[in-house]
Write a structure and sequence with these properties.
The chain has about 120 residues and is an all-beta fold. The protein has strands at about 5, 10-15, 20-25, 35-40, 45-50, 60, 70-75, 80-85, 90-100, 110, 115-119.
Protein backbone atom coordinates (compact mmCIF):
# COMPACT_ATOMS: atom_id res chain seq x y z
CA UNK A 1 0.00 0.00 0.00
CA UNK A 2 2.82 2.38 0.89
CA UNK A 3 6.28 2.01 -0.57
CA UNK A 4 9.28 3.71 0.96
CA UNK A 5 12.43 4.50 -0.96
CA UNK A 6 15.46 5.52 1.07
CA UNK A 7 18.63 7.25 0.00
CA UNK A 8 21.52 9.20 1.44
CA UNK A 9 23.41 6.63 3.45
CA UNK A 10 27.14 6.29 3.25
CA UNK A 11 30.44 6.66 5.01
CA UNK A 12 31.18 9.79 6.99
CA UNK A 13 33.82 10.90 9.46
CA UNK A 14 32.93 11.48 13.08
CA UNK A 15 31.65 15.00 13.53
CA UNK A 16 30.32 15.12 10.00
CA UNK A 17 26.79 15.20 8.65
CA UNK A 18 24.50 13.19 6.44
CA UNK A 19 20.94 13.65 5.30
CA UNK A 20 18.79 10.62 4.69
CA UNK A 21 15.72 10.81 2.49
CA UNK A 22 12.64 8.64 2.48
CA UNK A 23 10.28 9.11 -0.42
CA UNK A 24 6.80 7.62 -0.27
CA UNK A 25 4.79 6.16 -3.10
CA UNK A 26 1.91 3.79 -3.71
CA UNK A 27 -1.84 3.89 -3.80
CA UNK A 28 -1.95 5.72 -0.48
CA UNK A 29 1.08 7.95 -0.65
CA UNK A 30 0.47 10.12 2.40
CA UNK A 31 0.72 8.27 5.71
CA UNK A 32 -0.45 9.40 9.11
CA UNK A 33 3.01 9.27 10.63
CA UNK A 34 6.51 8.41 9.56
CA UNK A 35 9.51 7.46 11.60
CA UNK A 36 13.16 6.55 11.47
CA UNK A 37 14.67 3.54 13.19
CA UNK A 38 18.14 2.11 13.22
CA UNK A 39 19.79 -1.17 14.02
CA UNK A 40 23.47 -1.54 14.78
CA UNK A 41 25.27 -4.88 14.48
CA UNK A 42 24.41 -7.13 17.39
CA UNK A 43 21.88 -4.68 18.82
CA UNK A 44 18.12 -4.40 18.82
CA UNK A 45 16.25 -2.08 16.54
CA UNK A 46 16.14 1.40 18.02
CA UNK A 47 13.69 4.21 17.56
CA UNK A 48 15.32 7.39 16.26
CA UNK A 49 12.55 9.88 15.60
CA UNK A 50 9.09 10.40 14.20
CA UNK A 51 7.11 13.06 12.40
CA UNK A 52 3.37 13.49 12.03
CA UNK A 53 2.38 14.18 8.44
CA UNK A 54 -0.52 16.31 9.59
CA UNK A 55 0.86 19.13 11.71
CA UNK A 56 4.48 18.09 11.49
CA UNK A 57 4.99 17.37 15.18
CA UNK A 58 8.22 15.52 15.89
CA UNK A 59 9.75 13.39 18.59
CA UNK A 60 13.25 12.01 19.07
CA UNK A 61 15.13 9.43 21.02
CA UNK A 62 17.32 10.84 23.77
CA UNK A 63 20.41 9.50 22.05
CA UNK A 64 19.95 11.79 19.05
CA UNK A 65 18.27 14.86 20.52
CA UNK A 66 20.04 18.02 19.52
CA UNK A 67 21.92 16.29 16.71
CA UNK A 68 19.28 14.77 14.44
CA UNK A 69 16.33 16.56 12.89
CA UNK A 70 13.36 15.12 11.02
CA UNK A 71 11.67 17.28 8.43
CA UNK A 72 9.29 16.83 5.55
CA UNK A 73 8.59 18.07 2.07
CA UNK A 74 4.87 17.74 1.44
CA UNK A 75 5.12 18.39 -2.29
CA UNK A 76 7.61 15.55 -2.71
CA UNK A 77 6.01 13.23 -0.15
CA UNK A 78 9.44 12.90 1.36
CA UNK A 79 10.73 12.78 4.91
CA UNK A 80 14.32 13.63 5.79
CA UNK A 81 16.62 12.76 8.61
CA UNK A 82 19.34 15.36 8.99
CA UNK A 83 22.16 13.91 11.06
CA UNK A 84 24.76 16.29 12.44
CA UNK A 85 27.69 15.80 14.79
CA UNK A 86 27.75 12.14 13.94
CA UNK A 87 29.39 9.75 16.34
CA UNK A 88 30.88 6.33 15.85
CA UNK A 89 27.99 4.83 17.81
CA UNK A 90 25.56 6.20 15.22
CA UNK A 91 26.78 3.53 12.84
CA UNK A 92 23.78 1.41 11.91
CA UNK A 93 21.35 0.47 9.21
CA UNK A 94 18.72 3.18 9.17
CA UNK A 95 15.14 2.31 8.29
CA UNK A 96 12.25 4.49 7.28
CA UNK A 97 8.83 3.39 8.49
CA UNK A 98 5.27 4.56 8.02
CA UNK A 99 1.87 3.93 9.48
CA UNK A 100 -1.61 4.91 8.45
CA UNK A 101 -4.32 6.35 10.64
CA UNK A 102 -5.59 3.63 12.94
CA UNK A 103 -2.36 1.64 12.95
CA UNK A 104 -0.76 1.19 16.35
CA UNK A 105 2.56 0.10 14.86
CA UNK A 106 4.51 0.64 11.67
CA UNK A 107 3.50 -1.91 9.02
CA UNK A 108 5.44 -0.28 6.18
CA UNK A 109 9.21 -0.25 6.05
CA UNK A 110 11.98 0.64 3.70
CA UNK A 111 14.83 -1.71 2.94
CA UNK A 112 17.29 0.22 5.06
CA UNK A 113 20.34 2.28 4.24
CA UNK A 114 23.75 1.84 5.78
CA UNK A 115 25.30 4.71 7.71
CA UNK A 116 28.88 4.19 8.76
CA UNK A 117 30.69 6.72 10.94
CA UNK A 118 34.44 6.41 11.16
CA UNK A 119 36.62 7.87 13.87
Amino acid sequence: QVQLVESGGGLVQAGGSLRLSCATSGRTATPYEMAWFRQAPGKEREFVGRISWSGGGTGYADSVKGRFTISRNDAKNTVYLQMNSLKFEDTAVYYCAARMYGDSDYPFWGQGTQVTVSS
